[in-house]
TrEMBL record:
Protein name: O-acyltransferase
Natural source organism: Frankliniella fusca
Superkingdom of the organism of origin: Eukaryota
Quaternary structure note: Homodimer or homotetramer; both forms have similar enzymatic activities.
Reaction equations catalysed: 1,2-di-(9Z-octadecenoyl)-sn-glycerol + (9Z)-octadecenoyl-CoA = 1,2,3-tri-(9Z-octadecenoyl)-glycerol + CoA; hexadecane-1,2-diol + hexadecanoyl-CoA = 2-hydroxyhexadecyl hexadecanoate + CoA; 1,2-di-(9Z-octadecenoyl)-sn-glycerol + hexadecanoyl-CoA = 1,2-di-(9Z)-octadecenoyl-3-hexadecanoyl-sn-glycerol + CoA; hexadecane-1,2-diol + 2 hexadecanoyl-CoA = 1,2-O,O-dihexadecanoyl-1,2-hexadecanediol + 2 CoA
């Protein structure tokens, strides 16, 4: 062993003992310094902003941030009022909802027609349960029924564009999308129950039937009950039997199906958890939140978002990067406020209102998505009905079929991207696939956010999530508005905005 090697070993041994030695040294130094006449006031410690300090109480800075954000928002709001005046007009809301001011008969007919695929789905399931239809024929019929159901709004809204307002077309697409996901769940759950019943029947057929002493005793007690002896016991048994869970195929009824259609969930079950009563105060609060929330969202749209989107048309069309970014940042704040209002209005107020009316006990409509450290966690947290449907009816079946997690995850995002594009392009009658590409872009963005979380910490991962939410949506709005104007009104209308 050379001298250098022995010296390295000696240094490593000393470093192995260094932590304890430093602690002892600091304790001895502290005792010595306390007895000094210079009254020492210093000790080894880090600055509070250093990660090694362990300090985490930033409540004052959070309050400062909220106050600064509020003051900045008030300034923009005042600027908006000074520049455009009061634009809120309930009459325009009515015209936007009803088109030319009158009732939309085609919209009402489309909503009523949505009953047809629901009834067809129930009839197919009854035929499969009774053995009238084969499994292959039933599955093919279900696929055709669901495809016609989801494609019908695309054809009708495109061919009769003047008969539907923007709000009416959006409402139709939303209703048909929700029904599509619900019927998919209904078909798949009944298929699981049907396969389970067939497996149990085949196993029971293979076993020999045997009579035990217990069965003879039960038969004897039943006979006593019929003769008037032990009627009290049989009454208890009937009471218990009335509370038994519903079994397949007893669930195949129009009442059961329409309870599921109206319930605030996308995943079908034969026996949903129920509440015992309706809380009147809770119901009134949610109803007021829905009414007030709709007014707030419509006011923000009219007063703030519409002028900002119109002003972004020219810079975005002329590819003026600096002005386009300025318009994007200006649109980000009101758009994000509307999105937050939409989240609270939909996932807390409206779904809780439906759950209370339907005695639906599972109110897990969202998790703490605002604390998400990566994009994956956000998509698993902010919309629990859709996430639960995607995991139960798409992700897990693909994994059980032998596909990899990457394929299953990509398939989930593909279906989500399709419906995002469906809900935007069909009402606007502008098929540019920006929403589709935005959702598919969440896959690489998820990888990037996980890298940021791993390398820079969860705080920076959470900031990445917030940045994607605040900037991604207004960018998509600007792109769709530009394409909508160019598609339906031509380049001449862009020139008319040049003075804005």
């Amino acid at each position: 062993m050379t001298a250098d090697t022995s010296e390295d070993v000696h240094v490593r041994l000393r470093r192995a003992k260094s932590f304890t030695q430093v602690e002892q040294y600091l304790e001895q130094e502290t005792k010595v310094r306390k007895n000094q006449p210079d009254r020492p006031c210093h000790r080894p410690r880090d600055s509070l902003f250093s990660w090694s300090s362990g300090f985490d109480n930033f409540a004052g800075l959070v309050n400062w941030g909220f106050l600064l954000l509020f003051m900045g928002s008030m300034r923009l709001l005042l600027e908006n009022f000074l520049k455009y005046g009061i634009r809120v007009n309930p009459k325009q809301w009515l015209e936007l909802i009803t088109g030319d001011g009158g009732p939309e008969n085609d919209t009402i007919l489309m909503i009523l027609y949505s009953i047809v695929p629901v009834v067809i789905c129930l009839l197919i399931e009854k035929g499969l349960a009774a053995g009238i239809l084969t499994s292959k024929f039933g599955l093919t019929t279900h696929v055709v029924n669901l495809l016609i159901h989801i494609l019908l709004p695309m054809v009708v809204v495109h061919t009769k564009s003047k008969a539907f307002s923007l709000i009416a077309a959006s409402s139709i697409c939303m209703v048909y999308s929700v029904l599509f996901l619900k019927l998919w769940s209904y078909v798949q759950v009944n298929m699981w129950c049907r396969n389970s019943r067939q497996m149990n029947a085949s196993k029971a057929h293979q076993r020999r039937q045997s009579i035990s002493v217990g069965k003879l005793a039960i038969q004897g007690n039943q006979g006593k009950g019929q003769n008037g002896v032990g009627d009290k016991g049989s009454q208890k048994e009937s009471d218990l039997g009335s509370s038994k869970p519903v079994q397949y195929p007893d669930n195949l009824s129009l009442r059961d199906l329409y309870y599921f259609i109206l319930a605030p969930t996308l995943c079908y079950e034969l026996n949903f958890p129920h509440t015992t009563r309706i809380r009147k105060r809770f119901l009134i609060k949610r109803l007021l939140e829905v009414i007030i929330g709709i007014q707030v969202m419509m006011s923000l749209f009219q007063q703030w978002i519409i002028p900002s989107v119109k002003n972004s048309l020219i810079p975005f069309s002329n590819m003026e990067f600096a002005k386009a970014v300025e318009r994007l940042l200006k649109l980000a704040i009101p758009n994000h406020l509307v999105w937050l209002c939409f989240f609270y209005l939909t996932f807390h107020a409206w779904l809780n209102l439906l759950g209370e009316l339907m005695h639906f006990a599972d109110r897990n409509f969202y998790l703490d998505w605002w604390n998400s450290n990566n994009i994956d966690t956000f998509w698993r947290s902010w919309n629990m009905p859709v996430h639960r449907w995607a995991v139960r009816h798409l992700y897990i079946p693909l994994i059980e079929a032998g596909y990899t997690r990457v394929v299953a995850t990509t398939s989930v995002f593909f279906i989500s991207a399709f419906f995002h594009e469906y809900l935007v392009s069909v009402p606007l009658r502008t098929f540019k696939t920006w929403a589709f590409m935005g959702m598919m872009g969440q896959v690489p963005l998820s990888l990037m956010s996980r890298w940021v979380e791993k390398r820079l910490g969860p705080r920076w991962g959470n900031m990445t999530v917030w940045a994607s939410l605040i900037l991604g949506q207004p960018l998509c709005i600007m792109m769709y508005y530009h394409d909508y104007v160019v598609t339906h009104y031509g380049e001449a209308l862009i020139d008319s905005y040049g003075h804005v």
